[in-house]
Amino acid sequence: MSARITPPCHLPGATEFSDDHELLNPLWVVETVKKTEWLATALEEETNLDKGCGRPKKPGSWALAYLSFVVSGHVDLTPWWAQTTDELWQAAGFEKRPIYKTA
Description:
Elements: H1 26-35, H2 37-47, H3 62-72, H4 77-83, H5 86-91
Helix pairs in contact: 1-3
């Protein structure tokens, strides 16, 4: 007698993201998304809020900045912003870390 369904695949450890510290590094995530061209392009297209009016926007990806916030594990913007570095903001396309009010 044969089984009516195929047994599920088991991938031990496949969802244990917290065990891979590199995946929890916001800078690594931003750099990896930028290297993945199709993902970076889709992310920017779907999150572009520039409608061509008002003051010209300074360069930088707020979508990548937000992604780094989510990956950081912080639940509040203030401690996340305080621990960010110019290197992270530059990876997201900014000249340097913006002031807190802007973020």
